[in-house]
């Protein structure tokens, strides 16, 4: 540690080495790179844990979004309210793409309801749904029949699905409290699998 400190001093403008001083801009650039490296290490560690444990999920699949901030999502809810993903920072968020005509979506829905109820009081984890190639009317009927009280984004032009690279349903993304995408889940999810992913993510953050 002492050697590194001395070397840093010698490289400064008054040091014997005569090297160039580090500008604020360069320091900021270095800091940004280190933050990116740390985030990458955490995400890779999380994925390694997921890969070596039975998660109960259909498929935890690679995504170019993994380890990056989730796309900004702002859309209209089923009741006309504005839904913003950024407002859910501080919680783990499952972004679930679904359709009323999708059989696996119906199969996973009870587990999503149970997951939502499990974290309802603590708000440690939340769900936001995005309609995929379906109508708000059908989505209302789906929720009226099957339950669930989380926000639902209509996405009439498919922009949210495009931003996340979704080409079919069901598909879900787990996002951490800082807004970073931790995992992409293709196919149905279940309660035990989602809880395991959240717990693994919590351990990696601690």
TrEMBL record:
<dbReference type="GO" id="GO:0016491">
    <property type="term" value="F:oxidoreductase activity"/>
</dbReference>
<keyword id="KW-0676">Redox-active center</keyword>
<dbReference type="InterPro" id="IPR050553">
    <property type="entry name" value="Thioredoxin_ResA/DsbE_sf"/>
</dbReference>
<dbReference type="GO" id="GO:0017004">
    <property type="term" value="P:cytochrome complex assembly"/>
</dbReference>
<keyword id="KW-1133">Transmembrane helix</keyword>
<dbReference type="InterPro" id="IPR013766">
    <property type="entry name" value="Thioredoxin_domain"/>
</dbReference>
<keyword id="KW-0812">Transmembrane</keyword>
<feature type="domain" description="Thioredoxin">
    <location>
        <begin position="64"/>
        <end position="203"/>
    </location>
</feature>
<dbReference type="Pfam" id="PF08534">
    <property type="entry name" value="Redoxin"/>
</dbReference>
<keyword id="KW-0201">Cytochrome c-type biogenesis</keyword>
<protein>
    <submittedName>
        <fullName>Cytochrome c-type biogenesis protein CcmG/DsbE, thiol:disulfide oxidoreductase</fullName>
    </submittedName>
</protein>
<keyword id="KW-0472">Membrane</keyword>
<dbReference type="InterPro" id="IPR036249">
    <property type="entry name" value="Thioredoxin-like_sf"/>
</dbReference>
<dbReference type="InterPro" id="IPR013740">
    <property type="entry name" value="Redoxin"/>
</dbReference>
<feature type="transmembrane region" description="Helical">
    <location>
        <begin position="34"/>
        <end position="52"/>
    </location>
</feature>
<dbReference type="InterPro" id="IPR017937">
    <property type="entry name" value="Thioredoxin_CS"/>
</dbReference>
<dbReference type="GO" id="GO:0030313">
    <property type="term" value="C:cell envelope"/>
</dbReference>
<feature type="region of interest" description="Disordered">
    <location>
        <begin position="1"/>
        <end position="27"/>
    </location>
</feature>
<keyword id="KW-1015">Disulfide bond</keyword>
<keyword id="KW-0735">Signal-anchor</keyword>
């Amino acid at each position: 540690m002492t050697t590194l400190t001395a070397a840093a001093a010698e490289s400064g403008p008054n040091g014997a080495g005569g090297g160039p001083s580090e500008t604020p801009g360069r320091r900021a650039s270095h800091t940004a790179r280190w933050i990116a490296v740390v985030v990458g290490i955490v995400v890779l560690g999380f994925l390694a844990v997921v890969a070596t444990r039975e998660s109960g999920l259909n498929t935890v699949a690679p995504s170019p979004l993994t380890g990056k901030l989730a796309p900004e999502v702002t859309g209209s809810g089923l009741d006309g309210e504005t839904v913003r993903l950024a407002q859910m920072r501080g919680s783990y968020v499952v972004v679930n793409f679904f359709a009323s005509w999708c059989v696996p979506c119906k199969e996973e829905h009870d587990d999503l309801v149970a997951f939502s109820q499990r974290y309802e009081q603590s708000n440690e984890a939340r769900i936001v749904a995005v309609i995929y190639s379906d109508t708000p009317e059908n989505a209302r009927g789906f929720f009226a029949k099957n339950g669930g009280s989380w926000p639902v984004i209509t996405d009439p032009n498919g922009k949210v699905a495009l931003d996340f690279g979704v080409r079919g349903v069901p598909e879900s993304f787990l996002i951490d409290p800082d807004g970073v995408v931790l995992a992409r889940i293709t196919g149905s999810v279940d309660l035990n699998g989602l809880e395991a992913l959240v717990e693994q993510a919590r351990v990696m953050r601690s």
